[in-house]
Write a structure and sequence with these properties.
The complex is a heterodimer of chains A (487) and B (79). Chain A is globular. Chain A has 487 residues and is an all-alpha fold. Chain A is built from 19 helices and no strands. Chain A folds into two domains: 184 residues, no CATH class; 210 residues, no CATH class. Helix content of chain A is 68%, strand content 0%. Chain B has 79 residues and is mainly α. Chain B has a single domain, classed as Non-ribosomal Peptide Synthetase Peptidyl Carrier Protein, Chain A, CATH 1.10.1200.10. Chain B is built from four helices and no strands. In chain B, helix 1 crosses helix 2. The termini of chain B are close together. The mean pLDDT of chain B is 90. Classes of the chains: A mainly alpha (487), B mainly alpha (79). Chains A and B meet through helix 13 of A and helix 2 and helix 3 of B.
Chain lengths: 487, 79
Protein backbone atom coordinates (compact mmCIF):
# COMPACT_ATOMS: atom_id res chain seq x y z
CA UNK A 1 0.00 0.00 0.00
CA UNK A 2 1.60 3.27 -0.99
CA UNK A 3 0.88 6.18 1.31
CA UNK A 4 -0.46 8.29 -1.53
CA UNK A 5 -3.40 6.04 -2.28
CA UNK A 6 -7.06 5.84 -1.34
CA UNK A 7 -6.54 2.36 0.15
CA UNK A 8 -4.00 3.73 2.57
CA UNK A 9 -6.26 6.65 3.49
CA UNK A 10 -9.09 4.25 4.40
CA UNK A 11 -6.68 2.04 6.33
CA UNK A 12 -5.31 5.01 8.21
CA UNK A 13 -8.71 6.44 9.10
CA UNK A 14 -9.59 3.15 10.80
CA UNK A 15 -6.24 2.95 12.59
CA UNK A 16 -6.44 6.58 13.72
CA UNK A 17 -10.00 6.34 15.00
CA UNK A 18 -9.47 3.30 17.17
CA UNK A 19 -6.05 4.57 18.31
CA UNK A 20 -7.45 7.80 19.70
CA UNK A 21 -10.67 6.46 21.22
CA UNK A 22 -11.10 7.79 24.76
CA UNK A 23 -10.70 4.25 26.11
CA UNK A 24 -7.50 3.63 24.10
CA UNK A 25 -5.73 6.74 25.28
CA UNK A 26 -5.69 5.50 28.86
CA UNK A 27 -3.96 2.27 27.94
CA UNK A 28 -0.63 2.65 26.13
CA UNK A 29 -0.30 -1.12 25.93
CA UNK A 30 -3.59 -1.34 24.07
CA UNK A 31 -2.48 1.44 21.74
CA UNK A 32 0.74 -0.45 21.04
CA UNK A 33 -1.15 -3.68 20.41
CA UNK A 34 -3.46 -1.90 18.01
CA UNK A 35 -0.49 -0.38 16.19
CA UNK A 36 1.19 -3.78 16.05
CA UNK A 37 -1.85 -5.53 14.58
CA UNK A 38 -2.32 -2.68 12.10
CA UNK A 39 1.33 -2.98 11.13
CA UNK A 40 1.12 -6.73 10.55
CA UNK A 41 -2.03 -6.17 8.51
CA UNK A 42 -0.25 -3.46 6.52
CA UNK A 43 2.70 -5.77 5.91
CA UNK A 44 0.36 -8.61 5.02
CA UNK A 45 -1.29 -6.53 2.31
CA UNK A 46 2.14 -5.94 0.81
CA UNK A 47 3.24 -9.59 1.10
CA UNK A 48 1.28 -11.94 3.38
CA UNK A 49 3.75 -14.80 2.95
CA UNK A 50 6.39 -12.79 4.74
CA UNK A 51 4.43 -11.95 7.87
CA UNK A 52 5.61 -15.18 9.57
CA UNK A 53 9.19 -14.16 8.76
CA UNK A 54 8.73 -10.76 10.37
CA UNK A 55 7.05 -12.20 13.46
CA UNK A 56 9.56 -15.03 13.71
CA UNK A 57 12.59 -12.75 13.43
CA UNK A 58 11.06 -10.42 16.03
CA UNK A 59 10.53 -13.29 18.48
CA UNK A 60 14.06 -14.59 18.03
CA UNK A 61 15.69 -11.21 18.57
CA UNK A 62 13.47 -10.43 21.54
CA UNK A 63 14.67 -13.60 23.22
CA UNK A 64 18.24 -12.95 22.19
CA UNK A 65 18.16 -9.49 23.77
CA UNK A 66 16.96 -10.88 27.09
CA UNK A 67 19.53 -13.69 27.05
CA UNK A 68 22.31 -11.23 26.19
CA UNK A 69 21.44 -9.02 29.14
CA UNK A 70 21.39 -11.93 31.56
CA UNK A 71 24.87 -12.96 30.43
CA UNK A 72 26.09 -9.38 30.83
CA UNK A 73 24.65 -9.21 34.37
CA UNK A 74 26.55 -12.38 35.25
CA UNK A 75 29.74 -10.72 33.93
CA UNK A 76 30.05 -13.43 31.28
CA UNK A 77 31.64 -10.98 28.86
CA UNK A 78 32.88 -13.56 26.35
CA UNK A 79 29.42 -15.12 26.11
CA UNK A 80 27.88 -11.69 25.74
CA UNK A 81 30.22 -10.88 22.85
CA UNK A 82 29.47 -14.24 21.24
CA UNK A 83 25.72 -13.68 21.53
CA UNK A 84 26.02 -10.21 20.07
CA UNK A 85 28.07 -11.52 17.17
CA UNK A 86 25.51 -14.27 16.67
CA UNK A 87 22.67 -11.71 16.59
CA UNK A 88 24.48 -9.52 14.11
CA UNK A 89 25.33 -12.49 11.89
CA UNK A 90 21.74 -13.73 12.05
CA UNK A 91 20.40 -10.36 10.95
CA UNK A 92 22.99 -9.98 8.23
CA UNK A 93 22.40 -13.60 7.26
CA UNK A 94 18.70 -12.93 6.69
CA UNK A 95 19.57 -9.98 4.53
CA UNK A 96 22.26 -11.89 2.65
CA UNK A 97 19.96 -14.81 2.00
CA UNK A 98 17.09 -12.86 0.58
CA UNK A 99 19.02 -10.21 -1.19
CA UNK A 100 22.33 -11.61 -2.23
CA UNK A 101 22.17 -15.41 -2.41
CA UNK A 102 21.43 -15.48 -6.12
CA UNK A 103 24.04 -12.80 -6.76
CA UNK A 104 26.81 -14.64 -4.88
CA UNK A 105 25.91 -17.97 -6.42
CA UNK A 106 25.75 -16.63 -9.95
CA UNK A 107 28.97 -14.68 -9.54
CA UNK A 108 30.66 -17.76 -8.12
CA UNK A 109 29.34 -19.89 -10.99
CA UNK A 110 30.65 -17.32 -13.47
CA UNK A 111 34.01 -17.32 -11.72
CA UNK A 112 34.20 -21.09 -11.94
CA UNK A 113 33.26 -21.17 -15.61
CA UNK A 114 35.79 -18.45 -16.38
CA UNK A 115 38.51 -20.83 -15.21
CA UNK A 116 37.01 -23.70 -17.13
CA UNK A 117 34.94 -25.39 -14.46
CA UNK A 118 31.35 -25.91 -15.36
CA UNK A 119 28.84 -24.86 -12.80
CA UNK A 120 25.20 -24.15 -13.13
CA UNK A 121 23.02 -22.42 -10.67
CA UNK A 122 19.32 -22.46 -11.06
CA UNK A 123 18.30 -19.15 -9.74
CA UNK A 124 16.19 -19.92 -6.74
CA UNK A 125 12.86 -18.31 -6.77
CA UNK A 126 13.79 -16.15 -3.82
CA UNK A 127 11.62 -13.12 -3.72
CA UNK A 128 13.02 -10.23 -1.75
CA UNK A 129 10.55 -9.63 1.05
CA UNK A 130 9.68 -6.01 1.08
CA UNK A 131 11.09 -4.09 4.04
CA UNK A 132 13.71 -6.72 4.89
CA UNK A 133 16.59 -4.31 4.42
CA UNK A 134 15.02 -2.03 6.96
CA UNK A 135 13.66 -4.18 9.75
CA UNK A 136 16.75 -6.40 9.93
CA UNK A 137 18.74 -3.26 10.63
CA UNK A 138 16.42 -2.38 13.52
CA UNK A 139 16.79 -5.89 14.96
CA UNK A 140 20.60 -5.74 14.76
CA UNK A 141 20.66 -2.26 16.27
CA UNK A 142 18.67 -3.52 19.27
CA UNK A 143 21.21 -6.23 20.10
CA UNK A 144 24.22 -3.95 19.66
CA UNK A 145 22.78 -1.17 21.80
CA UNK A 146 22.07 -3.63 24.63
CA UNK A 147 25.66 -4.87 24.40
CA UNK A 148 26.98 -1.29 24.49
CA UNK A 149 24.86 -0.73 27.60
CA UNK A 150 22.97 2.12 25.97
CA UNK A 151 19.55 0.49 26.43
CA UNK A 152 17.91 -2.19 28.54
CA UNK A 153 16.18 -5.04 26.72
CA UNK A 154 12.46 -4.59 26.33
CA UNK A 155 10.34 -6.38 28.92
CA UNK A 156 7.22 -6.17 26.78
CA UNK A 157 7.12 -8.15 23.54
CA UNK A 158 4.31 -6.05 22.05
CA UNK A 159 6.34 -2.90 22.65
CA UNK A 160 9.43 -4.38 20.97
CA UNK A 161 7.45 -5.84 18.09
CA UNK A 162 5.77 -2.50 17.48
CA UNK A 163 9.16 -0.80 17.26
CA UNK A 164 10.25 -3.33 14.63
CA UNK A 165 7.05 -3.38 12.60
CA UNK A 166 5.82 0.22 12.97
CA UNK A 167 3.93 0.54 9.72
CA UNK A 168 4.74 4.13 8.64
CA UNK A 169 8.42 3.17 8.45
CA UNK A 170 8.16 -0.57 7.86
CA UNK A 171 8.55 -0.77 4.09
CA UNK A 172 11.25 1.81 3.33
CA UNK A 173 12.44 3.34 6.60
CA UNK A 174 13.55 5.73 8.10
CA UNK A 175 15.46 3.29 10.30
CA UNK A 176 14.81 4.29 13.89
CA UNK A 177 17.09 3.31 16.78
CA UNK A 178 15.62 1.59 19.81
CA UNK A 179 17.20 4.26 22.05
CA UNK A 180 14.95 6.99 20.71
CA UNK A 181 11.92 5.06 19.54
CA UNK A 182 11.09 2.52 22.25
CA UNK A 183 10.71 5.18 24.99
CA UNK A 184 7.98 6.75 22.85
CA UNK A 185 6.02 3.51 23.07
CA UNK A 186 6.05 3.64 26.85
CA UNK A 187 3.56 6.46 27.22
CA UNK A 188 -0.03 6.79 26.14
CA UNK A 189 -0.74 9.03 23.20
CA UNK A 190 -3.50 11.62 23.08
CA UNK A 191 -3.97 13.59 19.92
CA UNK A 192 -1.39 16.39 19.91
CA UNK A 193 -3.12 18.83 17.59
CA UNK A 194 -0.04 20.88 16.70
CA UNK A 195 2.04 17.79 16.03
CA UNK A 196 -0.74 16.26 13.93
CA UNK A 197 -1.09 19.44 11.87
CA UNK A 198 2.66 19.51 11.33
CA UNK A 199 2.42 15.88 10.26
CA UNK A 200 -0.32 16.64 7.75
CA UNK A 201 1.70 19.48 6.27
CA UNK A 202 4.70 17.20 5.99
CA UNK A 203 2.61 14.56 4.22
CA UNK A 204 1.30 17.19 1.82
CA UNK A 205 4.80 18.34 0.99
CA UNK A 206 5.99 14.75 0.57
CA UNK A 207 3.12 14.06 -1.81
CA UNK A 208 3.97 17.14 -3.81
CA UNK A 209 7.62 16.23 -4.38
CA UNK A 210 6.75 12.61 -5.08
CA UNK A 211 3.73 13.05 -7.35
CA UNK A 212 4.45 16.34 -9.09
CA UNK A 213 8.17 15.88 -9.60
CA UNK A 214 9.56 12.38 -8.96
CA UNK A 215 6.83 10.47 -10.78
CA UNK A 216 7.12 12.67 -13.84
CA UNK A 217 10.90 12.58 -13.91
CA UNK A 218 10.68 8.79 -13.61
CA UNK A 219 8.80 8.49 -16.88
CA UNK A 220 11.23 10.81 -18.62
CA UNK A 221 14.39 9.19 -17.29
CA UNK A 222 13.11 5.70 -18.17
CA UNK A 223 12.38 6.69 -21.76
CA UNK A 224 15.77 8.28 -22.28
CA UNK A 225 17.74 5.54 -20.52
CA UNK A 226 16.06 2.86 -22.62
CA UNK A 227 17.56 4.46 -25.69
CA UNK A 228 20.63 6.26 -24.36
CA UNK A 229 22.81 5.08 -27.20
CA UNK A 230 21.15 7.47 -29.59
CA UNK A 231 20.94 10.49 -27.32
CA UNK A 232 23.28 13.46 -27.46
CA UNK A 233 25.92 13.97 -24.78
CA UNK A 234 24.18 17.07 -23.54
CA UNK A 235 20.89 15.19 -23.14
CA UNK A 236 22.62 12.50 -21.14
CA UNK A 237 24.25 15.10 -18.94
CA UNK A 238 20.92 16.72 -18.19
CA UNK A 239 19.48 13.22 -17.59
CA UNK A 240 22.14 12.72 -14.94
CA UNK A 241 21.20 15.88 -13.07
CA UNK A 242 17.48 15.17 -13.37
CA UNK A 243 17.89 11.60 -12.18
CA UNK A 244 19.48 12.86 -8.98
CA UNK A 245 16.52 15.21 -8.49
CA UNK A 246 14.22 12.28 -9.13
CA UNK A 247 15.78 10.07 -6.47
CA UNK A 248 15.84 12.95 -4.01
CA UNK A 249 12.25 14.07 -4.49
CA UNK A 250 11.07 10.46 -4.52
CA UNK A 251 12.78 9.25 -1.40
CA UNK A 252 12.50 12.54 0.47
CA UNK A 253 8.83 12.56 -0.48
CA UNK A 254 8.32 9.04 0.84
CA UNK A 255 10.26 9.81 4.02
CA UNK A 256 8.24 12.96 4.65
CA UNK A 257 5.01 11.02 4.25
CA UNK A 258 6.21 8.31 6.63
CA UNK A 259 7.36 10.84 9.22
CA UNK A 260 4.14 12.84 8.81
CA UNK A 261 2.00 9.76 9.46
CA UNK A 262 4.13 9.01 12.50
CA UNK A 263 3.55 12.53 13.82
CA UNK A 264 -0.23 12.18 13.51
CA UNK A 265 0.09 9.11 15.72
CA UNK A 266 2.22 11.08 18.17
CA UNK A 267 5.63 9.66 17.25
CA UNK A 268 8.86 11.34 16.25
CA UNK A 269 10.39 9.20 13.56
CA UNK A 270 14.02 9.96 12.84
CA UNK A 271 14.92 12.22 9.98
CA UNK A 272 16.16 10.92 6.62
CA UNK A 273 17.11 14.04 4.69
CA UNK A 274 18.45 17.41 5.77
CA UNK A 275 18.83 19.53 2.65
CA UNK A 276 21.55 17.37 1.08
CA UNK A 277 21.66 19.53 -2.05
CA UNK A 278 23.34 22.22 0.06
CA UNK A 279 26.26 19.89 0.86
CA UNK A 280 29.64 21.39 0.10
CA UNK A 281 31.58 18.14 0.12
CA UNK A 282 30.88 14.42 0.05
CA UNK A 283 31.13 13.96 3.82
CA UNK A 284 28.54 16.67 4.39
CA UNK A 285 26.39 15.06 1.69
CA UNK A 286 26.30 11.67 3.38
CA UNK A 287 25.60 13.29 6.76
CA UNK A 288 22.43 14.72 5.22
CA UNK A 289 21.28 12.07 2.69
CA UNK A 290 19.44 8.92 3.80
CA UNK A 291 20.61 9.89 7.26
CA UNK A 292 19.06 6.93 9.05
CA UNK A 293 21.00 4.47 6.89
CA UNK A 294 24.30 6.36 6.87
CA UNK A 295 24.28 6.92 10.61
CA UNK A 296 23.41 3.25 11.21
CA UNK A 297 26.37 2.04 9.18
CA UNK A 298 28.58 4.79 10.67
CA UNK A 299 27.78 3.77 14.25
CA UNK A 300 27.96 0.01 13.74
CA UNK A 301 30.56 -0.43 11.02
CA UNK A 302 32.63 2.73 10.60
CA UNK A 303 33.24 3.60 14.24
CA UNK A 304 34.31 0.06 15.26
CA UNK A 305 36.57 -0.14 12.18
CA UNK A 306 37.97 3.30 12.82
CA UNK A 307 38.71 2.30 16.41
CA UNK A 308 40.30 -0.98 15.31
CA UNK A 309 42.47 0.79 12.71
CA UNK A 310 43.31 3.73 14.95
CA UNK A 311 47.04 3.20 14.88
CA UNK A 312 47.18 3.31 11.09
CA UNK A 313 46.63 7.11 10.94
CA UNK A 314 45.13 8.32 7.65
CA UNK A 315 45.40 4.89 6.03
CA UNK A 316 43.22 3.49 8.78
CA UNK A 317 40.61 6.18 8.31
CA UNK A 318 40.61 5.75 4.53
CA UNK A 319 40.23 1.98 4.83
CA UNK A 320 37.33 2.41 7.24
CA UNK A 321 35.72 4.94 4.89
CA UNK A 322 36.09 2.63 1.88
CA UNK A 323 34.57 -0.36 3.67
CA UNK A 324 31.81 1.83 5.10
CA UNK A 325 30.72 3.41 1.89
CA UNK A 326 31.04 0.25 -0.23
CA UNK A 327 28.70 -1.41 2.26
CA UNK A 328 26.26 1.49 1.94
CA UNK A 329 26.38 0.93 -1.80
CA UNK A 330 25.95 -2.84 -1.59
CA UNK A 331 23.07 -2.49 0.88
CA UNK A 332 21.06 -1.19 -2.05
CA UNK A 333 21.25 -4.40 -3.98
CA UNK A 334 23.00 -7.38 -5.36
CA UNK A 335 24.98 -5.98 -8.24
CA UNK A 336 28.62 -5.04 -8.72
CA UNK A 337 27.39 -1.64 -9.81
CA UNK A 338 26.37 -0.88 -6.24
CA UNK A 339 29.86 -1.80 -5.03
CA UNK A 340 31.39 0.42 -7.69
CA UNK A 341 29.01 3.19 -6.67
CA UNK A 342 30.42 2.87 -3.15
CA UNK A 343 34.03 2.91 -4.39
CA UNK A 344 33.33 6.00 -6.48
CA UNK A 345 32.05 7.82 -3.41
CA UNK A 346 35.01 6.58 -1.37
CA UNK A 347 37.31 8.22 -3.93
CA UNK A 348 35.53 11.52 -3.39
CA UNK A 349 36.48 11.25 0.29
CA UNK A 350 40.22 11.07 -0.37
CA UNK A 351 40.89 14.83 -0.44
CA UNK A 352 38.88 15.25 2.76
CA UNK A 353 40.74 12.56 4.67
CA UNK A 354 44.12 13.84 3.52
CA UNK A 355 43.34 17.42 4.57
CA UNK A 356 41.93 16.27 7.89
CA UNK A 357 38.68 18.12 7.33
CA UNK A 358 36.58 15.02 6.84
CA UNK A 359 34.97 15.00 10.26
CA UNK A 360 34.48 18.74 10.46
CA UNK A 361 31.01 20.16 10.44
CA UNK A 362 31.43 23.70 9.17
CA UNK A 363 28.33 25.84 9.65
CA UNK A 364 26.65 27.09 6.52
CA UNK A 365 26.45 30.86 6.84
CA UNK A 366 24.69 33.10 4.33
CA UNK A 367 26.26 36.25 2.90
CA UNK A 368 24.93 39.73 3.61
CA UNK A 369 22.07 39.26 1.14
CA UNK A 370 20.80 36.07 2.74
CA UNK A 371 22.14 34.00 -0.13
CA UNK A 372 24.86 31.34 0.00
CA UNK A 373 28.41 32.70 -0.21
CA UNK A 374 29.90 32.32 -3.68
CA UNK A 375 32.59 29.87 -2.56
CA UNK A 376 29.93 27.75 -0.85
CA UNK A 377 27.71 27.93 -3.91
CA UNK A 378 30.46 26.62 -6.21
CA UNK A 379 31.12 23.80 -3.78
CA UNK A 380 27.42 22.91 -3.74
CA UNK A 381 27.30 22.83 -7.54
CA UNK A 382 30.48 20.76 -7.77
CA UNK A 383 29.27 18.32 -5.13
CA UNK A 384 25.87 17.95 -6.84
CA UNK A 385 27.65 17.30 -10.13
CA UNK A 386 29.92 14.58 -8.72
CA UNK A 387 27.08 12.95 -6.80
CA UNK A 388 24.98 12.92 -9.96
CA UNK A 389 27.70 11.15 -11.90
CA UNK A 390 27.74 8.51 -9.19
CA UNK A 391 24.02 7.90 -9.70
CA UNK A 392 24.69 6.80 -13.27
CA UNK A 393 26.56 3.82 -11.83
CA UNK A 394 23.72 3.36 -9.35
CA UNK A 395 21.14 3.16 -12.12
CA UNK A 396 23.11 1.07 -14.61
CA UNK A 397 22.43 -2.63 -14.93
CA UNK A 398 26.08 -3.52 -15.25
CA UNK A 399 29.45 -1.85 -15.08
CA UNK A 400 29.77 -1.92 -18.87
CA UNK A 401 26.35 -0.32 -19.09
CA UNK A 402 27.56 2.52 -16.86
CA UNK A 403 30.74 3.03 -18.89
CA UNK A 404 28.76 3.15 -22.13
CA UNK A 405 26.58 5.86 -20.68
CA UNK A 406 29.62 7.84 -19.52
CA UNK A 407 31.20 7.67 -22.95
CA UNK A 408 27.87 8.79 -24.34
CA UNK A 409 28.22 12.00 -22.36
CA UNK A 410 31.85 12.55 -23.31
CA UNK A 411 31.23 12.93 -27.03
CA UNK A 412 31.14 15.96 -29.29
CA UNK A 413 27.36 15.98 -29.03
CA UNK A 414 27.92 17.26 -25.51
CA UNK A 415 27.96 20.73 -27.00
CA UNK A 416 24.66 20.48 -28.81
CA UNK A 417 21.30 21.47 -27.42
CA UNK A 418 19.81 18.80 -25.19
CA UNK A 419 16.40 17.45 -26.04
CA UNK A 420 14.25 16.00 -23.31
CA UNK A 421 10.50 15.76 -22.96
CA UNK A 422 10.63 17.81 -19.76
CA UNK A 423 7.35 19.51 -19.01
CA UNK A 424 7.48 23.21 -18.19
CA UNK A 425 5.46 22.57 -15.04
CA UNK A 426 7.98 19.98 -13.81
CA UNK A 427 10.78 22.46 -14.45
CA UNK A 428 8.97 25.09 -12.38
CA UNK A 429 8.39 22.60 -9.56
CA UNK A 430 12.06 21.60 -9.54
CA UNK A 431 13.04 25.26 -9.36
CA UNK A 432 10.69 25.77 -6.42
CA UNK A 433 12.23 22.80 -4.60
CA UNK A 434 15.75 24.12 -5.23
CA UNK A 435 14.89 27.58 -3.93
CA UNK A 436 13.12 26.20 -0.87
CA UNK A 437 16.08 23.89 -0.23
CA UNK A 438 18.04 27.02 0.64
CA UNK A 439 15.40 29.34 2.07
CA UNK A 440 13.87 26.74 4.42
CA UNK A 441 17.15 25.04 5.29
CA UNK A 442 16.64 25.46 9.04
CA UNK A 443 13.26 23.70 8.93
CA UNK A 444 12.39 20.05 8.81
CA UNK A 445 10.18 20.64 5.78
CA UNK A 446 9.16 23.78 3.89
CA UNK A 447 5.60 23.82 5.21
CA UNK A 448 6.71 24.31 8.81
CA UNK A 449 5.36 27.81 8.86
CA UNK A 450 6.76 30.24 11.39
CA UNK A 451 4.28 31.98 13.63
CA UNK A 452 5.41 35.43 12.51
CA UNK A 453 5.41 36.62 8.94
CA UNK A 454 2.85 36.13 6.23
CA UNK A 455 1.95 32.57 7.20
CA UNK A 456 0.41 33.50 10.50
CA UNK A 457 -2.74 34.27 8.55
CA UNK A 458 -4.80 31.12 8.10
CA UNK A 459 -6.07 32.44 4.77
CA UNK A 460 -2.53 32.41 3.40
CA UNK A 461 -1.85 28.93 4.72
CA UNK A 462 -5.05 27.57 3.26
CA UNK A 463 -4.21 29.17 -0.05
CA UNK A 464 -0.90 27.30 -0.05
CA UNK A 465 -2.61 24.00 0.82
CA UNK A 466 -5.19 24.56 -1.93
CA UNK A 467 -2.60 25.33 -4.57
CA UNK A 468 -0.56 22.25 -3.68
CA UNK A 469 -3.65 20.07 -3.60
CA UNK A 470 -4.69 21.41 -6.99
CA UNK A 471 -1.24 20.56 -8.37
CA UNK A 472 -1.53 17.05 -6.93
CA UNK A 473 -4.91 16.63 -8.55
CA UNK A 474 -3.76 17.94 -11.91
CA UNK A 475 -0.49 16.04 -12.05
CA UNK A 476 -1.31 12.70 -10.49
CA UNK A 477 -0.56 10.18 -13.16
CA UNK A 478 -0.28 6.46 -12.60
CA UNK A 479 0.87 5.77 -9.07
CA UNK A 480 4.57 5.03 -9.38
CA UNK A 481 5.96 2.99 -6.55
CA UNK A 482 8.88 4.34 -4.61
CA UNK A 483 12.31 3.61 -6.00
CA UNK A 484 13.29 2.49 -2.54
CA UNK A 485 10.61 -0.20 -2.31
CA UNK A 486 12.95 -2.46 -4.25
CA UNK A 487 15.49 -2.19 -1.44
CA UNK B 1 46.84 7.75 39.82
CA UNK B 2 44.42 10.26 41.31
CA UNK B 3 41.34 11.21 39.34
CA UNK B 4 42.29 14.87 39.49
CA UNK B 5 45.72 14.11 38.05
CA UNK B 6 44.11 12.25 35.17
CA UNK B 7 41.84 15.19 34.40
CA UNK B 8 44.77 17.59 34.39
CA UNK B 9 46.69 15.46 31.94
CA UNK B 10 43.58 14.99 29.79
CA UNK B 11 43.08 18.75 29.61
CA UNK B 12 46.59 19.03 28.18
CA UNK B 13 45.99 16.26 25.65
CA UNK B 14 42.65 17.68 24.52
CA UNK B 15 44.13 21.19 24.18
CA UNK B 16 46.94 19.79 22.08
CA UNK B 17 44.98 17.40 19.81
CA UNK B 18 41.96 19.65 19.28
CA UNK B 19 44.03 22.82 19.04
CA UNK B 20 42.06 24.57 21.77
CA UNK B 21 42.97 27.72 23.69
CA UNK B 22 42.10 26.06 26.97
CA UNK B 23 40.17 23.10 28.25
CA UNK B 24 38.34 22.27 31.48
CA UNK B 25 36.94 18.79 31.29
CA UNK B 26 34.38 17.54 33.76
CA UNK B 27 32.74 14.15 34.26
CA UNK B 28 29.79 15.25 32.13
CA UNK B 29 31.75 16.69 29.20
CA UNK B 30 31.01 14.95 25.90
CA UNK B 31 31.66 15.55 22.20
CA UNK B 32 28.51 17.66 22.08
CA UNK B 33 30.21 20.27 24.28
CA UNK B 34 33.33 20.87 22.22
CA UNK B 35 32.94 21.91 18.60
CA UNK B 36 36.35 20.61 17.48
CA UNK B 37 35.61 17.14 18.93
CA UNK B 38 34.29 15.25 15.91
CA UNK B 39 34.41 11.59 14.84
CA UNK B 40 37.91 11.91 13.39
CA UNK B 41 39.48 13.83 16.29
CA UNK B 42 37.74 11.38 18.66
CA UNK B 43 40.03 8.64 17.34
CA UNK B 44 43.07 10.93 17.45
CA UNK B 45 42.27 11.73 21.11
CA UNK B 46 42.05 8.05 22.02
CA UNK B 47 45.38 7.30 20.32
CA UNK B 48 47.01 10.21 22.18
CA UNK B 49 45.53 9.16 25.54
CA UNK B 50 46.60 5.53 25.10
CA UNK B 51 50.12 6.70 24.26
CA UNK B 52 50.37 9.23 27.11
CA UNK B 53 49.06 6.89 29.83
CA UNK B 54 50.59 3.73 28.33
CA UNK B 55 47.26 1.88 28.41
CA UNK B 56 45.11 0.08 25.85
CA UNK B 57 41.34 0.25 25.60
CA UNK B 58 39.14 -2.42 24.03
CA UNK B 59 36.78 -1.43 21.22
CA UNK B 60 33.75 -2.24 23.34
CA UNK B 61 34.97 0.01 26.17
CA UNK B 62 35.46 2.92 23.78
CA UNK B 63 31.98 2.50 22.29
CA UNK B 64 30.30 2.37 25.68
CA UNK B 65 31.51 5.76 26.92
CA UNK B 66 28.90 8.51 26.96
CA UNK B 67 31.12 11.21 28.46
CA UNK B 68 34.60 11.96 29.80
CA UNK B 69 33.65 10.70 33.27
CA UNK B 70 32.97 7.21 31.96
CA UNK B 71 36.22 7.25 30.01
CA UNK B 72 38.14 8.21 33.17
CA UNK B 73 36.40 5.36 35.05
CA UNK B 74 37.80 2.96 32.42
CA UNK B 75 41.22 4.55 32.79
CA UNK B 76 41.23 4.28 36.59
CA UNK B 77 40.71 0.51 36.25
CA UNK B 78 43.91 0.27 34.24
CA UNK B 79 46.14 2.69 36.17
Amino acid sequence: MVVNSVRFLLFFIVVFTVYYLPVSKKHPRFQNLWLLLSSYFFYGVADWTMVPLLIGATLVFYGLGAWLKSEMRKQHHKNASRLTTFGVCLGIGLLLYFKYLNFFAESFAELLSSIGLKATWTTLNIVLPIGVSFFTFKLISYIIEIHREHIEPSKDFVEFATYIAFFPALLSGPIDRPNTFIPQLRRSHSLDYDQAVDGCRQILWGMFTKICIADHLAILTDIIWADYGSQSGSTLLIWTLLYTMQIYTDFDGYSNMAIGVGKILGFNITRNFNHPLLARNIAEFWRNWHISLTSWITDYVFMPLNIAFRNLANWGVMLAVVINIVLIGLWHGANWTFGLFGLYHAMLYVPLVLSGSFGKNKKLRPNDYGLPKLEDFWKMLANFFFVSLGFIIFHAESITDAFRFFSGILSTSLFTMPSLPLKKATMVFILIVLILEWTTRKKEHPLQFSTDGIFKYSAVRYLVYSVISLMLFLFAGEVETFIYFQF
Amino acid sequence: MERQEIFEKLNEIFTDVLDLDECNLTDETSANDIEEWDSLSHIQLIVAIEKAFKIKFTSLEIMKWNNVGEMVDSMMEKL
